[in-house]
């Protein structure tokens, strides 16, 4: 038996929703912007190998790979149910760069656990799987948060709830929006990006954050596109993190002159996103970012839509 899970890249925070909003991405040209994990029958208890564009950035030892942690975590979850994990081999196709702000670790975690769960006839339900994904993501970032794993797993634009047994719920998106996402080729660790944030915030900033987040969610549900786009402003992280991203202000200025609805930092950065409603403008923005923002051969840029499906499972090998 062989199963493969594909888990898309994601935008954490989406500017206005620090740690509580996340959106899954799907390039309009059909490119794979996300990691894939294959799980198949094996004659030994466990084996792991890696491939893909960014596989060389991963630890050489399998025991230091997050996918190995997923295997251990899933085995422990099965044991609690009186079940045993099957002998298997895993292959991680690493298509997302580490420290990119595109939910790279979340993509590997979600793909690994989704594939393991499918391989074991879905022994965990959706909520149980998502809780385990958040727990493993927390081992990397230092705290449990779902704004990458939830959209990566479930698709769409997700609002983190984490109350009354509800982890997240989807909110409506605007079909006309294009999300131009560009990774410049440098890395910023989540820990580094969090360390630069202040320990305390002014009351006025907290009120502005809450007001804009509420207005964005309300506008999304009521179809007020202009109001929703106007709320995509960050007072919590961007004022501090933009210093870590070379040419960020140039990107914002050019995007504004090019008809952008909003520009923001994807997750912890350094990836930036530009939201636009005109496809041709979005494609021109992509060209400009490739020429002016990308710094090395690791960088890339995609014009995306929101990925409504999230993680996909197939029975075909890599």
UniProtKB/TrEMBL annotation:
It is an enzyme of class 2 (transferase). One of its GO terms (cellular component) is cytoplasm. Residues 227-292 form the GHMP kinase C-terminal domain. GO terms for molecular function: ATP binding; homoserine kinase activity. It catalyses: L-homoserine + ATP = O-phospho-L-homoserine + ADP + H(+). It is found in: Cytoplasm. Residues 76-156 form the GHMP kinase N-terminal domain. ATP binds at residues 97-107. Its EC number is 2.7.1.39. One of its GO terms (biological process) is threonine biosynthetic process. InterPro entries: GHMP_kinase_C_dom, GHMP_kinase_C_sf, GHMP_kinase_N_dom, GHMP_knse_ATP-bd_CS, Homoserine_kinase, Ribosomal_Su5_D2-typ_SF, Ribsml_uS5_D2-typ_fold_subgr. Pathway: Amino-acid biosynthesis; L-threonine biosynthesis; L-threonine from L-aspartate: step 4/5. Keywords: Amino-acid biosynthesis, ATP-binding, Cytoplasm, Kinase, Nucleotide-binding, Threonine biosynthesis, Transferase. NCBIfam families: PRK01212.1-4, thrB. Belongs to the GHMP kinase family. Homoserine kinase subfamily. Catalyzes the ATP-dependent phosphorylation of L-homoserine to L-homoserine phosphate. This is Homoserine kinase. It comes from Tolumonas auensis (strain DSM 9187 / NBRC 110442 / TA 4).
């Amino acid at each position: 038996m062989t199963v493969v899970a594909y888990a898309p890249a994601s935008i954490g925070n989406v500017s206005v929703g620090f740690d509580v909003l996340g959106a899954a991405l799907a390039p309009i040209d059909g490119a794979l912007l996300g990691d894939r994990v294959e799980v198949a029958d094996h004659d030994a208890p466990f084996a792991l190998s890696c491939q893909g564009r960014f596989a060389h950035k991963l630890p050489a030892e399998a025991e230091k790979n997050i996918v190995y942690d997923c295997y251990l975590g899933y085995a422990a979850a099965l044991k609690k149910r009186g079940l045993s994990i099957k002998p298997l081999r895993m292959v991680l196709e690493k298509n997302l760069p580490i420290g990119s702000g595109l939910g790279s670790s979340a993509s590997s975690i979600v793909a690994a656990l989704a594939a393991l769960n499918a391989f074991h006839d879905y022994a965990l339900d959706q909520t149980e799987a998502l809780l385990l994904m958040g727990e493993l993501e927390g081992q990397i970032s230092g705290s449990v948060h779902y704004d990458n794993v939830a959209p990566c797993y479930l698709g769409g634009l997700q609002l983190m709830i984490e109350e009354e047994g509800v982890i997240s719920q989807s909110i409506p998106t605007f079909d006309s929006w294009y999300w131009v996402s560009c990774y410049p080729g440098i890395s910023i660790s989540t820990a580094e990006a969090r360390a630069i944030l202040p320990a305390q915030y002014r009351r006025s900033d907290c009120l502005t954050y809450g007001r804009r987040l509420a207005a964005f969610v309300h506008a999304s549900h009521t179809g007020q596109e202009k109001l929703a786009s106007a709320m995509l402003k960050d007072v919590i992280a961007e004022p501090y993190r933009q210093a870590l991203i070379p040419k960020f202000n140039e990107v914002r200025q050019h995007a504004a002159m090019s008809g952008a609805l909003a520009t923001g930092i994807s997750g912890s950065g350094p990836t930036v996103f530009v939201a636009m409603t005109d496809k041709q403008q979005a494609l021109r923005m992509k060209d400009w970012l490739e020429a002016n923002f990308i710094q090395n051969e690791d960088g890339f840029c995609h014009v995306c839509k929101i990925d409504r499906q999230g993680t996909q499972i197939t029975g075909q090998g890599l």
